[in-house]
Amino acid sequence: xxxxxxxxxxxxxxxxxxxxxxxxxxxxxxxxxxxxxxxxxxxxxxxxxxxxxxxxxxxxxxxxxxxxxxxxxxxxxxxxxxxxxxxxxxxxxxxxxxxxxxxxxxxxxxxxxxxxxxxxxxxxxxxxxxxxxxxxxxxxxxxxxxxxxxxxxxxxxxxxxxxxxxxxxxxxxxxxxxxxxxxxxxxxxxxxxxxxxxxxxxxxxxxxxxxxxxxxxxxxxxxxxxxxxxxxxxxxxxxxxxxxxxxxxxxxxxxxxxxxxxxxxxxxxxxxxxxxxxxxxxxxxxxxxxxxxxxxxxxxxxxxxxxxxxxxxxxxxxxxxxxxxxxxxxxxxxxxxxxxxxxxxxxxxxxxxxxxxxxxxxxxxxxxxxxxxxxxxxxxxxxxxxxxxxxxxxxxxxxxxxxxxxxxxxxxxxxxxxxxxxxxxxxxxxx
Length: 431
Description:
CATH architecture of the largest domain: Orthogonal Bundle
Low-confidence stretches: none
Shape: extended
Number of strands: 3
Strand content: 5-15%
Order of helices and strands: HEHHHHHEHHEHHHHHHHHHH
CATH class of the largest domain: Mainly Alpha
Radius of gyration: 32 Å
Number of domains: 2
Number of helices: 18
């Protein structure tokens, strides 16, 4: 039997049905894509809003206004207004006199509880004032001092006065003092000068990111100085000069594999090589820069090779035809045209290095560093590790400061990525 011939009408009907089916599938695919983008944006908005909501209070804290008598006998025992004399002085006593007079505290217990409301950093603030302006000696000055983290937490509403006194960290007497100071207008909620000016501290109200930010800058400086020239030189050699054989293929495969290696592996490598073999100390920005440079190299090499490949062969052919050598072709023509892409890849790699924590934990940059590092050979920590450490502390004030530090880190990352986009837009050449 023979099949009946398909009439033009039936064929047209089947074609139309097939076209309609393909269009329906395309619309479904577009809807799925839009849904995925919507979900991603929703999660991003939830994440950013949560961090901002918790982080913005970290930029502020409560301060109390005290009148302090800067008695020369207490604060400058040598009488020569030198640094040594000020450090031999007793700012604690001057501060106690001010607190006791303001609060009317009496008895050993009452005075102790009243003085605990003021941050331990108040004494350093008095000393710093005198170091900046010794002429203040002998005068009574009004100074805003940070409140202790427990008092700050109470004023933020984290400690309820309804909680039984035995179950909270502030006594009824201390709460009464805070209420009275608020009624007098002596307590203000203002921008924290400790967050950007302080370093690591066990007192939450004194903790800041200055030391971690400086450590991050020093570490990234070492990373950039090592990774960028080595990465670009490697990319130029592999793309322009290296013969295409099995050896270079193995190198290329290993570079691509290194880009996918977990960052903690580079930390273990740095621990074994730079600290174990070469004997460098732990927690140095120099060692951290070495480790992050090793981690960033594959990214820079891959992006630099892609930028070199994007330069049209006609540029090379024209330069060679004019009598230029291979080196002149690369340095005078190819590299300047590929440099924007190389810089973009480098900045993205540096942004990735800025947010790394695991490799730096392995080389000891999790150490508690109080002083701000002055060079690459001074012990330091970095901003992601500082965030990691603060997140583990029990004090409630560290929650806000951790979120604030995250916002600072995100700001650095956004600025670096925006810089990469600007460089690409400004110098990009379309062929």
